[in-house]
Amino acid sequence: MTMKEIHLAGGCFWGAEHYFKSIEGVRKTEVGFANGHLDSPTYEQVYTDTTGHAETVHVVYDPAILPLEELLADFFCAIDPLSLNKQGEDEGTRYRTGIYYSDPEDLPVIRMVYSQVEDRVGAPLAVEVCPLDYFFPADEYHQDYLAKNPDGYCHLPLKLFRYPRLLADMKALLGDEGDPVARMSNASALIKERMGFFWVGYYIVREKDLVLGPFQGPVACMHIGYGKGVCGTAWKEARTIVVPDVEAFPGHIACSSQSRSEIVVPVFSEGKVAAVLDIDSAELETFDHVDAFWLEKIAGLSF
Ligand code: SME
């Protein structure tokens, strides 16, 4: 299949490009300035915030591996879609968020993902959607900036670069292995190794309760009832639960006093919760919507 392209503005293009590059199915990226009113602008001109351009990444991707719908969902995961002309600490119209399409046939998918995000956040988005009118590549200095300068400034959290690679490596590692215990065992080992969390493991749905499955970390409780603790609640409600402070979660089950925050992601099989992926951190407030988004994809592979 032929490659497709789209231009995405997600705040400072250094971090945005580094993020898109880490996603499986992205074949090529280039940073530049989109949709302003000055031809061939320099970075310094755009920096004055008077030229109307947005810092933008030209993304070339393989739709057979990465459908547009998924690429856009990944894009929305890395921006604050309610923030107008500001991403992280970067402010100005050049840091506005936008989806600039060259193929009008992409519009229905863009509209669909856009309205899904709007429904989820419950407010109109500050992300503009319009045809790509103009794109001018930035100097070589800005291309692949964070690959060339790993300690350089970045408005995105590091985990946004780690999760896409973890997902791609997980797919390759698990392949077509048919045994869920083998899949969950290596999945917990790889997540622990890459992300360094305190405890990573699975609880498997049996008749009336969850039973401890493959895990990495200190010993843990072996049975959890339906609706009990964070795990039993995620099973009952069939949704991801992010717990910034375990002491503030009513009914939290403390397997270790060192666990301070937690995320539990349901694992579905044939439309039902078959297990939960439970991850504990020894620090408060480790997990947020970014972890939920990527761990849901990872959990989807693990059974
Ligand atoms: N904290 C979990 C129990 C499992 S341990 O975190 C490994 C809960 O409340 O369900």
Terminal CA distance reads 30 Å
User: Could you give the count of β-strands?
Assistant: 14
What is the structural class? alpha+beta
Bound molecules: methionine sulfoxide
Helix count equals 9
Order of helices and strands: EHEHEHEEEHEEHHHEEEHEEEH
Mean pLDDT: 97
Largest sheet: 6 strands, mixed
Shape: elongated
In helices, the fraction of residues equals 25-40%
Radius of gyration, rounded? 21 Å
Give a written overview of the molecule:
The mean pLDDT is 97. α3 (68-77) packs parallel to α4 and α6 (159-174) runs parallel beside α9. With 303 residues, the chain is an alpha+beta fold. It is built from nine helices and 14 strands. β10 (209-216) and β11 (223-225) form a beta hairpin. The longest helix is centred in the middle third of the chain and has 16 residues, at 159-174. The strands form three sheets. It has a six-stranded mixed sheet with strand order 7-6-1-3-2-8, covered by helices on one side. It has a six-stranded antiparallel sheet with strand order 11-10-9-14-13-12, with helices on both faces. Methionine sulfoxide binds at residues 199, 220-221, 224, 229-231, 252-253, 255, 259, 262, 278, 280.
Layout: helices, strands, pairs:
Layout: E1 4-10, H1 13-21, E2 26-34, H2 43-47, E3 54-61, H3 68-77, E4 86-87, E5 90-91, E6 97-101, H4 107-121, E7 128-131, E8 135-137, H5 145-148, H6 159-174, H7 180-195, E9 199-205, E10 209-216, E11 223-225, H8 229-237, E12 241-243, E13 261-269, E14 272-281, H9 289-299
Helix pairs in contact: 3-4, 6-7, 6-9
The chain binds methionine sulfoxide (SME).
